[in-house]
Design a protein that fits this description.
five-stranded parallel sheet, PAS
């Protein structure tokens, strides 16, 4: 018969700490390590003999040690923190991702003795996540949408050509990002990439920006100035919002595309250009051609390779990927440790229509970063409009219909008040009688055959 009884509680704790796969260490009030379990040794590559007695930052060399240390926050505010993401440097100088949870270390009487940190090696999970993400990643764009994956599949071939590209898509869908991807994949990648928003500039300024000018070309032109076509020589130039350009500018641009030459303002000497042109627009260029708002010949010149970026509402499967990407980006930029987004908050995002597309989603996540101090983003960190009833957001009453309904009600009420006397009703409404008849006809209001005036007389 075994004479030994069950292990004492302290022994039980040690057995448990030595058997788990998470690293655990404790520090005293002076930040010196007082215990270091077996898993902590395996993850860091540092023996407990080496670790105990040293400052914790000397052992872990975590990027968290340099700024927002979770254990330090726990010691300062007396609060536990769960699953903060960071990385440490191991004994063989390898950086590995970990998540940490921290708590105060107290004795039986509640006196604070120091802090305890539990950390988990996330290398395998990060590797799997990276492999999964890489299959959806192309240049700086990420998507699992079939339409986007098909587009990614063509980009390499498109980039190798010198043909003009037209990118169509709503505002915020990433037209400039796609243009940069084409440039970065092309043989021109070491040459300049220059983007200009054509819709933001008046004709004369746009032309001087693109083509440059000679001294004396206009009042303030005191010296020659190089234009963007010269600056982008052998590189790529993106003409964004090309659908907003004037007919006069379209003529000048057509000449550049046909002859590969341009003339600076005030010059009569044409200059050759080798810049590749990419045009982008959020407007329906084909429709503009049909209504003579955009030159047909220029349209065919720039529409050699046409790419259409789908709006975010047509690729909602990308939202989780994009949210993860923006959180990682903002964690780096703002030195925070936001761990992700919870299910309810993600569900609210998935129910939104995103008229502002990816740019709107990024702004929403940045908004959440301001309000979320730590942990995951929850619904209360999101902008208030996302928490409104969905039906209200998705089915707003068209303003034209609302105005028409109000006018109809006012006219019917005025007619009723004046016993169908058209003249009196018009006076009550402050309208000329002919205006009243026009509105009655437009709104489809049925009037009685007899005017109230004749009835009363």
């Amino acid at each position: 018969m075994n004479s030994k009884g069950p292990p004492a509680p302290l022994e039980c704790t040690e057995i448990i700490l030595e058997s788990i796969s998470d690293g655990v260490f404790t520090v005293d009030l002076h930040w010196r390590i007082t215990s270091f379990n077996r898993a902590a040794e395996e993850i860091t590559g540092i023996s407990r003999h080496e670790a105990i007695g040293r400052y914790c930052w000397e052992v872990f060399r975590s990027n968290m040690c340099e700024g927002d240390c979770a254990l330090r926050r726990t010691m300062e505010v007396g609060k536990s923190f769960v699953s903060s993401a960071t990385s440490i440097i191991t004994s063989n100088k390898k950086q590995i991702p970990i998540t940490v949870s921290t708590s105060l270390l107290k004795d039986g009487s509640g006196e604070i003795l120091g802090g305890v940190e539990v950390f988990r090696d996330m290398s395998l999970i990060e590797e799997l996540r990276r492999d999964l993400r890489s299959s959806f990643l192309f240049s700086d764009m990420i998507s699992r949408s079939p339409a986007m994956l098909e587009l990614f599949g063509m980009l390499d071939q498109i980039a190798q050509s010198d043909s003009t590209v037209l990118i169509e898509g709503e505002t915020g869908t990433g037209k400039e990002l796609l243009s940069r991807a084409i440039h970065n994949l092309s043989p021109r990648q070491d040459q300049p990439f220059i983007a200009i928003n054509c819709g933001a500039l008046p004709d004369t300024l746009l032309e001087s920006e693109l083509f440059g000018y000679k001294a004396g070309a206009f009042t303030d032109a005191r010296s020659d100035r190089q234009g963007l076509f010269s600056a982008a020589e052998k590189g790529t130039i993106l003409l964004d919002e090309i659908g907003d350009t004037s007919p006069a500018f379209q003529v000048r641009l057509l000449r550049v595309l046909e002859d590969h030459t341009f003339q600076p303002l005030g010059s009569t000497v044409p200059i050759k250009t080798n810049a590749r042109l990419i045009a982008a627009t959020n407007r329906d260029l084909h429709g503009l051609v049909e209504t003579n708002q955009f030159r047909r010949d220029l349209f065919y010149r720039i529409n050699i390779i046409a790419l259409r970026l789908p709006p975010l509402r047509d690729r909602m499967e990308d939202i989780p990927l994009l949210v993860d990407r923006f959180i990682a980006k903002l964690n780096r930029r703002k030195k925070k440790l936001i761990s992700g987004i919870d299910e309810q908050a993600l569900d609210l995002l998935l129910q939104h229509d995103f008229p502002g597309n990816i740019r709107e989603l990024e702004n929403i996540i940045e908004h959440a970063f301001v309000l979320c101090p730590e942990g995951p983003i929850t619904p209360r960190h999101l902008p208030a409009f996302l928490n409104l009833p969905i039906q209200k957001l998705r089915s707003p009453a068209p303003i034209d219909k609302t105005v028409a309904d109000s006018e109809r009600d006012a006219i019917l009420k005025a007619l009723h008040n004046n016993h169908n006397n058209r003249t009196a009703a018009a006076m009550q409404l402050g309208l000329h009688k002919s205006t009243l008849f026009r509105k009655v006809k437009k709104l489809g209001i049925s009037l009685p055959e007899q005017d109230g005036r004749s009835t009363r007389s």
